[in-house]
Design goal:
The complex is a heterodimer of chains A (about 475) and B (about 625). Chain A is mostly helical and about 475 residues long. Chain A folds into 2 domains: about 300 residues, no CATH class; about 130 residues, no CATH class. Helix content of chain A is about 65%, strand content about 0%. Chain A has a two-stranded antiparallel ribbon. In chain A, a hairpin with a 7-residue loop joins β1 and β2. In chain A, α2 packs antiparallel against α16, α3 packs parallel to α18 and α5 runs parallel beside α18. Chain A is globular and about 70 Å long. The N terminus of chain A is likely disordered. Chain B folds into 2 domains: about 100 residues, no CATH class; about 350 residues, DD-peptidase/beta-lactamase superfamily (Beta-lactamase). Chain B is α+β, with helices and mostly antiparallel strands. In chain B, the strands form 6 sheets. In chain B, strands 2, 3, 6, 7, 12 and 16 form a 6-stranded mixed beta sheet that branches. A 5-stranded antiparallel beta sheet of chain B has the order 14-13-20-19-18, sandwiched between helices. In chain B, α3 crosses α4, α13 crosses α15 and α14 packs parallel to α20. Chain B has 22 helices and 20 strands. Classes of the chains: A mainly alpha (about 475), B alpha+beta (about 625). At the A-B interface, α8, α15, α16 and α17 of A face α1 and α2 of B.
Chain lengths: ~475, ~625
């Protein structure tokens, strides 16, 4: 009996990636426990009170498990077959939702009241499938700018529809697909070369910047964001009173320490021959990083007062003129006050719904009650779980035999990463306040179901990776 | 192009963010204290608990001042919804327009903080989410009417609070009153105990013993919601500070004697001050006319009653025992005798003829000794005796001699507690006046003709010899003189509080003041005082008691605007005295007629707890001198 037949004869469950499933169940359970703690209503103490958020969340999880069950029954070929159809269906929903009455100023909800869904959440799956189907049809080696533009348009259409709602959070999340394009070799090089040719430079066949445009852009954005977020801070020293440094120096110091660390690594692990090359790269990158930080800082400081205020408002650095206090500060106070071991389950003094010092503490800011109640032990565990989950998905992606499955897996990884990085980042002051949920933990039917379906499809594709060759 | 290696871009990105986030979380949660403090600032409310003020009991342990419960109507602006101003005004019995004004008033009361941006004081301290007192001091009965309807006014609620209650409608001048602290008082308090709306003692012992009576404010740390609703005590109250009631004060005052004294002084203007000589404790201090201290309890009552009391022509708010400065008149002769004897200018048996050409006098035999001089209150005798004190012949120049003599004399008078503030434990004491050489050097009888240095001698200032002229003393000082005489030469500064909690009285009141007069010089003077009451030639026969020997001295202050003022000081019993009394009745006539019998009734009431001299009591109770107005007064006999 060949090995393949053995796989085939095994039950479905045998081929499931158990690590991912366990992390998924852990995160979902933590989510329910946190929602129960945060939104606890003494009048409905039962975990299964469906009038309360914890009861509802359990219902959503139940529905998600059921959907997962269905996904495992359905043959994976249908995703490939119906990828474009699903994508167009999602776009249709995104169009319809624009004609719905707005909830909290955004036309993001389809349906009535609590039974509504957010098409933007499901559009991520649709887009992932569409990309997974579209990209393998391209010949990477003879890539032209038309193909690059077309794959970008697949991402751009839902983005435009989403910003019309408007939903800035989901809009930003869709840029995660750019990393998928990067992994698949869909660089912006053809466009850059066209541009260079237009300028009269015809010698080049390919450029390094064009090939690695996406990660470079990402790094520049992250560094600029760090510089912006710290631009108005002042660093003081308790032991050295009177000495004040602009916050920018903190960022510079951080990158300088990274530089030193890398320098040591280079000195240890490189041969004499390569060393000068690596050192040159290191010093060059440090120079670029420093010029970005200082440049952004100078630019921000040279802005007029009202312009500065607008940027600060966007980043959540400034008190919302209509609100009581700025959410970020409250969220950071809740997280930071957790200490090592936390205040104990159901002991959150800032982020319980009752106290309400932290807004949206069961949805976008659910990391607050979690960190406040479980302290660094809890919050660190969450970060660890996500990091392991994300890396595991990349490992899974790379073991796929079909491009479709790999591209889909990469989409799942980067989407989850964006949600994780931005959501937790805004709770700890490292990302602007953009209202997106923490996958599997935040309360909400649409996000619960869409992330679950997204993950279950991945698990299903992975479990059949031997069969899927295309 | 090896695309597969691009997976490391993702993996490194995920790992980098994971590491950065974990480091950041470790820093925020474990290393940095800042966010913990910030969280406390956001979620914990420091709620001050105002302790009840300390109780006050009299020397026998009867409760004189306590607290009674009241309600405040509180308001949190943020919780107010669709306020029906007219309905609320009806409920609390206000004019509807006052409701809006009150909101404005509360805002203003909180004041403003300095705005760091503009440098001006324009940042309001008022916060919409904080509770403020909307109506103060609602009685329990009033609240019973209001409370059932309060549900119609979200944002308003009642809060229990306590206010002063004075069990006796008496002793207002001793007890003083309590009222809302004003901005100057808040600013002056370096300990920053007070906040707007707090109460503070404004007069009497309520003011003097404010620190002891106010107690220690409690602090409750409460976890609050963003809507400022109180959720639960922080850390189960582990860090709370319990409010501590103020100390209990025990008065030296005998409240029943005080009540009786005020009864005797009804329809009269004047004072009674009684002191226990051995301790300096004030047993009674009557300032007539007086008022019920309960009239000045609570902001509303004070707002209506205080102006009325202030404008009353009989000046009930004027603390006569401490602030009325009268020429002492004949009672001054007791002190002149002591000084002359101590200085050796006369002996016990020195006699002087009653020479009416020197100074006026009534008809009586010549005084052959100091005893008779006191008994008969002979003016010419003291004219001559005091001249020997002021002009002792120590210096050749009579002006220099008078300067020397008066200097000595003034020193004795200061030792008697005159001419300087007798710093008792009720604020607002006046010093009276004992002229010294410096005083006359600078005195301007008219603007063009000052006495000047070495421009005056005894003849210029002779009226002080019989307690007239520039000399002024307060009734408290008179009573202290009586106590000093009873002690034969020493006194404690008179005070009303016998003990603060269990700690005894303040240290300053345990300090014995010596007068510098040898005890033997007192005996003739005191014998004279006995004769004033018990001998045929005495002026205070109406003060006689059957089984207690009272030693006293009358005085009569002439008053050009009406009847004379009646003055009497005494102590009793003669040996081992238990009480010293000074009585001053304005516009009542001779000292022996009115002040003396009042003093004797006080003595009898205190020593025997009941009054046998019913006739005398009736005679005093029926007396009414209120119609006889007075504007200024002089003393003579």
């Amino acid at each position: 009996m060949s090995r393949e037949t053995a796989y085939r004869n095994n039950s479905l469950l045998g081929k499931i990636d158990w690590l991912i499933l366990i992390i998924y169940i852990a995160l979902v359970t933590i989510g329910i426990a946190t929602i129960y703690s945060t939104a606890y209503n003494p009048e409905h103490p039962s975990l299964l009170s469906f009038s309360e958020k914890y009861g509802k969340q359990i219902a959503w999880v139940g529905v998600s498990f059921f959907l997962g069950f269905l996904i495992f029954l359905i043959d994976t070929t249908i995703y490939q077959k119906f990828a474009y159809f699903i994508y167009i269906f999602c776009l249709g929903l995104l169009v319809i939702v624009l004609f719905m009455p707005p909830v909290n100023g955004a036309r993001a909800w389809l349906g009535i009241g609590s039974m509504g869904i957010q098409p933007a959440e499901f559009a991520k799956i649709g887009t992932a499938l569409a990309l997974a189907k579209f990209i393998p049809s391209l010949n990477i080696r003879t890539l032209d700018s038309k193909s690059v533009l077309l794959s970008n348009i697949i991402i751009l259409i839902p983005m435009i529809l989403i910003i019309l709602q408007p939903d800035a959070g989901s809009f930003v999340v869709f840029t995660a697909f750019l990393f998928v394009l990067y992994r698949e070799g869909l660089s912006y090089d053809p466009i850059l070369l066209k541009l260079l040719r237009f300028l009269g430079i015809t010698r080049l066949k390919s450029t390094w910047v064009g090939n690695h445009f996406i990660p470079l852009l990402f790094i520049v954005i992250v560094i600029s964001m760090a510089a912006l977020l710290t631009s108005n801070n002042i660093i003081t020293f308790e032991s050295l009173p009177g000495i004040e440094l602009p916050g920018m120096y903190g960022v510079l110091l951080f990158f300088f320490s990274v530089f030193l660390l890398l320098l040591i690594l280079v000195l240890i692990f490189t041969t004499k021959k390569d060393r000068s090359k690596f050192l040159l790269i290191l010093i060059f990158s440090l120079g670029i990083v420093f010029s970005i930080v200082i440049g952004v800082d100078r630019m921000f400081q040279s802005l007029k007062k009202h312009q500065k205020e607008r940027i600060e408002l966007f980043l959540g650095l400034r008190e919302d003129p209509n609100g009581d206090d700025y959410n970020r500060n409250r969220a950071m106070a809740a997280v930071g006050s957790g200490g090592l071991k936390g205040k104990g389950y159901q002991q959150a003094s800032l982020s319980s719904v009752e106290a309400n010092h932290v807004p949206e503490s069961e949805t976008d800011f659910i990391f607050c009650p979690l960190s406040e109640e479980w302290g660094f032990i809890g919050s660190g565990t969450i970060v660890l779980l996500y990091t392991v989950l994300l890396i595991r998905i990349i490992v899974i992606a790379e073991r796929q035999r079909s491009s479709f499955s790999r591209i889909y897996a990469y989409s799942v990884a980067t989407i989850l990463f964006y949600h994780f990085a931005i959501n937790i980042g805004m709770n700890i002051g490292l990302a602007p306040v953009i209202g997106i949920p923490l996958p599997f933990i935040s309360y909400g039917g649409s996000s619960m179901m869409s992330f679950s379906v997204m993950l279950f499809i991945l698990l299903k594709l992975d479990s059949q990776r031997i069969d899927i060759l295309q | 192009m090896n695309l597969q290696s691009r997976k490391y871009v993702s993996i490194i990105m995920f790992l980098a963010i994971g590491i950065i986030y974990i480091s950041r979380l470790f820093y925020m949660q474990v290393l940095d204290e800042y966010w913990t403090l910030r969280a406390a600032e956001i979620s914990e409310k420091r709620k001050l608990v105002i302790p009840p003020r300390g109780h006050v009991v009299d020397r026998t342990g009867k409760l004189v001042v306590s607290n009674k419960p009241y309600y405040n109507l509180m308001m949190i602006e943020k919780n107010i919804k669709d306020l029906d101003t007219v309905a609320l005004a009806n409920l609390i019995g206000w004019e509807p327009i006052k409701i809006r004004e009150r909101f404005k008033e509360i805002r203003e009361e909180q004041g403003y903080d300095k705005n760091p941006k503009t440098g001006k004081r324009d940042l309001p301290r008022y916060q919409k989410v904080r509770p403020y007192v909307f109506v103060k001091e609602i009685t329990i009965d009033e609240m019973a009417q209001i409370a059932p309807h309060l549900y119609k006014f979200p944002g308003f609620y009642e809060e229990l609070s306590s206010m002063r209650y004075y069990s006796y409608p008496n002793a207002a001048n001793i007890l003083g009153y309590v009222s809302e602290v004003n901005q100057q008082e808040i600013d002056a308090d370096s300990a920053r105990y007070y906040r707007p709306g707090d109460n503070i003692g404004k007069a009497g012992i309520e003011k003097y013993y404010e620190k002891e009576l106010r107690g220690i404010k409690g602090v409750n740390y409460i976890v609050t919601s963003a809507m400022n609703n109180e959720l639960q005590p922080y850390a189960n109250g582990k860090y709370d500070i319990k409010a501590k009631q103020g100390d209990r004060l025990q008065l030296g005052v005998d409240i029943e004697l005080q009540v009786y004294g005020e009864q005797l002084m009804q329809n009269k203007r004047g004072t009674i001050v009684a002191i226990e000589p051995s301790t300096g404790e004030i047993l009674t201090m009557v300032s007539a006319p007086t008022y019920d201290p309960n009239l000045l309890v609570g902001k509303r009552a004070i707002q209506t009653n205080y102006p009325k009391l202030l404008l009353d022509e009989n000046k009930p708010l004027f603390p006569r025992p401490l602030q009325a400065e009268y020429p002492p008149g004949s009672i001054f002769k007791l002190l002149q005798s002591l000084i002359a004897l101590q200085e050796g200018r006369i002996t016990v048996n020195t006699g002087f003829p009653c020479n009416k050409s020197l100074v006026g006098c009534h008809n009586h035999p010549n005084a052959r000794s100091i005893i008779e001089a006191v008994q008969m209150s002979c003016n010419p005798y003291y004219y001559q005796a005091v001249r020997r004190v002021i002009q002792p012949g120590v210096k050749k120049n009579i002006y220099a001699d008078a300067e020397y003599g008066l200097g000595k004399w003034a020193e004795y008078m200061h030792n008697f507690g005159l001419g300087e503030k007798l710093a008792t434990d009720i604020p607002g004491v006046r010093p009276g006046l004992i002229p010294d050489p410096n005083y006359y050097d600078n005195l301007f009888p008219s603007k063009r003709n000052p006495y000047g240095h070495h421009r005056w001698a005894f003849s210029t200032i002779r009226s002080i010899s019989i307690g007239q002229g520039e000399v002024k003393v307060t009734p408290l000082q008179m009573a202290n003189i009586a106590a000093m005489l009873a002690n034969r030469g020493w006194f404690y500064v008179p005070h009303v509080v016998k003990s603060i909690g269990n700690k005894g009285s303040e240290k300053v009141f345990l300090e014995k003041h010596q007068t510098g007069i040898n005890p033997q010089h007192f005996e003739p003077v005191i014998e004279g005082m006995r004769r004033v009451v018990y001998e045929a030639g005495g002026t205070a026969r109406r003060a006689r008691l059957n089984d207690i020997i009272i030693c006293g001295k009358t005085g009569t202050a002439q008053n050009p605007h009406g009847e004379d003022h009646s003055v009497f000081i005494c102590f009793a019993p003669k040996d081992n005295p238990k009480i010293a009394v000074a009585v001053f009745v304005e516009n009542a006539g001779a000292g022996g007629t009115w002040a003396a019998p009042i003093a004797s009734l006080i003595v009898e009431k205190y020593l025997k707890r009941e009054v046998t001299e019913k006739e005398r009591e009736k005679y005093i109770l029926e007396a009414n001198f209120m119609g006889k107005t007075t504007k200024s007064n002089t003393a003579n006999e």
